Amino acid sequence: MVKLVSILGTSPGGIFETFSNLLTGNYSSESGKGTPVEIREVYIIRTNHPQVTNAWNLLKNIFLCCGVSEHSLSDIVLDIDDIKSPEDYVKFRKEVLGRLNPGDYVDFTGGRKAMSAAAAIAAIKAGAHLVTTVIEQSDYNRIQELIKAAPSGSTSTLSDRGQCGSVKNYLCSLISKQSKTILLQ
User: Fold this and answer.
1) What is the chain's mean pLDDT, rounded?
2) Residues 96-133: pLDDT tens digits?
3) How many domains does the chain have?
4) Strand 129-134 relative to strand 32-33: parallel, antiparallel, unpaired?
5) What is the CATH number of the domain that holds 50?
6) What is the distance between the alpha carbons of residues 76 and 5, in angstroms, rounded to a whole number?
7) In what order do the strands lie in the sheet with 27-29?
8) Domain containing 18: what range?
9) Closest residue by Cα to residue 125 from 153, 151, 138, 106
């Protein structure tokens, strides 16, 4: 079974969009329209920056409250708050590479450019597929404003769907309805 390894920055919805679009075959590639990909494991690789930790808390809740399939969601936190040195870059790239097998998918959409580059290089080295998801800038701005105004409880750890209640609509609004996922390799 293939897995999705994603890089998380400060916008949590992009990873869910990539995951959903791969599951449903709603992506494009050089060869045309995609076919559904069965993904049961999602690895999130991120820094320990407070804004990224906030995005992780939102992302967990988005998967729980807005998701439709069974999956395993794993949080891999590096002990850096950003890539600030060649050593940080190597650490990040090795962490991504260590999670990959040939045929897995790497979503390099999130995070800083150096993180995306590290993930893309690791994917190529491992024989994994490269994917990215794009949204309109206006949608991105809307989502960023929503994140800034997060309602109470939306970043608390929810353990089952029954707890989604009053925050479900908010969490699901952090997902772009017009996202476009592109398989690059």
Assistant:
1) 90
2) 999 999 999 999 998 889 999 999 999 999 999 999 99
3) 1
4) unpaired
5) 3.40.50
6) 10
7) 32-33, 27-29, 180-183, 129-134, 105-107, 2-7, 39-46, 72-77
8) 2-183
9) 106
